[in-house]
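in:
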């Protein structure tokens, strides 16, 4: 497996693969990889001939008060893991090469990126879309895989790709969970034992809301309330938002017609965790 921080090397390699008729699957990450990421790499390996993983802790998507400096960096282990599940190359660009002197472009997807996480992390999605546009430009993948845990990120990226007619197919991969239901996240590493234990209530709350829907409740305020009720007694959990939205547009839904995305952000101590569930009729 090739590991390089050189943009030229990675774009030459992709060019060569394309000439040889190989399709390219791309998994952009910020490293500190867990099984959730590895499932994205596996999905890319199943759907394409050559898989590239990027590992870049993108400064432009972190707010001033956020965890850029302490974000876990485990490059050597990450490379071993992705190689074991079929990656052909790991691209680890430096910030100075992603954003060279004179870099002046921001890709901003309005509307869809403004609620939920966008409302509490101003500028976050501009950072995500800008770096993804840069990485897509370098790798020129046929497909790029994004996890459904970051449901708003997925919707924003899909909108960007569609609006800019970027020649890449965005593939959504399911959320991977720990045995107690907590969604896998690089930030789970920050949790204390007690926070980790209480964090499992997030999934329980999402499921409780979904169960309420299955019993016939269509009023979203009741679904949101059910989530809050489930987590509110946990002393270390603090709900930042609970919202019910259309999964494609992220527009608030008040009465469920066919389906609704219940999306939440919860602090466990100082660690911000996000999760969601697509609520729809069981067939
Ligand atoms: O989901 C992430 O890890 C990041 O937001 C991404 C897509 C790699 C962009 O930096």
């Amino acid at each position: 497996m090739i590991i390089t921080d050189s943009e030229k090397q990675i774009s030459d390699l992709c060019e060569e693969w394309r000439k040889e008729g190989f399709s390219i699957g791309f998994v952009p990450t910020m490293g500190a990889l867990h099984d959730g990421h590895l499932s994205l790499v596996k999905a890319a390996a199943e759907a394409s001939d050559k898989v590239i993983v990027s590992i870049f802790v993108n400064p432009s998507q972190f707010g001033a008060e956020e965890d850029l400096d302490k974000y876990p960096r485990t490059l050597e282990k990450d490379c071993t893991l992705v190689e074991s599940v079929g990656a052909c190359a790991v691209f680890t660009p430096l910030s100075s090469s992603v954003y060279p002197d004179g870099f002046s472009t921001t890709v901003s997807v309005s509307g869809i990126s403004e609620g939920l996480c966008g409302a509490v992390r101003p500028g976050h999605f501009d950072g995500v879309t800008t770096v993804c546009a840069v990485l897509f430009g370098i790798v020129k993948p046929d497909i790029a895989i994004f996890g459904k845990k970051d449901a708003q990120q997925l919707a924003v990226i899909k909108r960007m790709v569609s609006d800019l007619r970027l020649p890449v197919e965005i593939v959504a991969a399911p959320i991977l969970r720990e045995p107690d239901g907590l969604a896998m996240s690089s930030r789970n590493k920050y949790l204390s034992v007690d926070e980790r234990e209480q964090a499992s209530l997030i999934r329980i709350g999402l499921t409780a809301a979904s169960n309420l829907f299955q019993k016939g409740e269509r009023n979203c305020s009741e679904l949101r309330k059910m989530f809050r009720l489930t987590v509110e007694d946990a002393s270390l959990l603090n709900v930042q938002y609970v919202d019910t939205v259309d999964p494609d547009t992220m527009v608030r839904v008040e009465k469920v017609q066919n389906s609704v995305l219940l999306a939440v952000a919860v602090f466990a101590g100082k660690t911000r965790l996000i999760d969601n569930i697509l609520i729809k009729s069981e067939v």
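note: The chain is about 40% helix and 20% strand.
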